[in-house]
Design a protein that fits this description.
Strand content: 25-35%
Shape: elongated
Number of helices: 5
Structural class: alpha/beta
Radius of gyration: 25 Å
Order of helices and strands: EEHEHEHHHEEE
Helix content: 25-40%
Length: about 200
């Protein structure tokens, strides 16, 4: 990736050329932070006209610089993104009525923030938490179906991992809707219990 910058009045204009992905995200983060350090008080403008691709790593760099400039009382604007690069931003959570240059946070997250309620049992809630909750709910559904089926059996493996790899201490098949004692006595703390259905 090529990074070319110029200072225009109260703005640092950064023209990027190349893909913004996992391999270029780190160096770009460092370059942008150095520019922000060298030019305190100036707003940041990212020109994406020559950026054909942005992945989640690149998006993370942009959002991280946005948080930084916002905390410092500055602004971040994105200009000239290609249509498919613009689509990287989650369209379901974006507020297209807000100009990205005026309020990038509202642009990128406005609809999501307005429509997402943080559950009482959580201190924050984002897409990763939502996906984890959905995965847990689906897994519980699969387990409940198996428990309800009297012909199903559940396999339980007990083992641990050390420097040489996994060591299995036992495998048991347990009939549905039953409870069996698999091990008696103290179980060493090295054990990891792997349940397989």
């Amino acid at each position: 990736m090529t990074v070319v910058h110029s200072v225009q009045g109260n703005r640092i204009v950064v023209a990027l050329k190349g893909e913004l992905d996992l391999t270029t995200a780190g160096p770009l983060r460092e370059a942008l932070d150095q520019l922000l350090d060298r030019h305190p008080g100036r707003d940041l403008v990212l020109d994406l006209a020559e950026v054909p691709f942005v992945d989640s790593s690149g998006l993370g760099v942009i959002l991280g610089r946005y948080r930084r400039v916002r905390q410092e009382g500055r602004q971040l604007a994105i200009v000239n993104p290609r249509p498919h690069v613009r689509a990287v931003f989650d369209m379901a959570g974006m507020d297209a009525s807000v100009d990205a240059g005026d309020d990038f946070y509202a642009y990128a997250n406005g609809v999501w923030a307005a429509n997402t309620e943080i559950p009482d049992d959580k201190t924050n809630y984002g897409m990763f938490t939502a996906l984890a909750d959905l995965s847990e709910e689906r897994t519980q559904g699969i387990i409940d179906e198996m428990i309800a089926d009297p012909s199903s059996r559940v396999g339980v493996a007990v083992g641990y991992q050390d420097a040489t790899g996994w060591a299995t201490e036992g495998w048991w098949n347990i009939a549905s809707q039953t409870c069996e004692t698999l091990l008696k006595g103290a179980v060493p703390s090295r054990f990891i219990y792997v349940h397989a259905l």
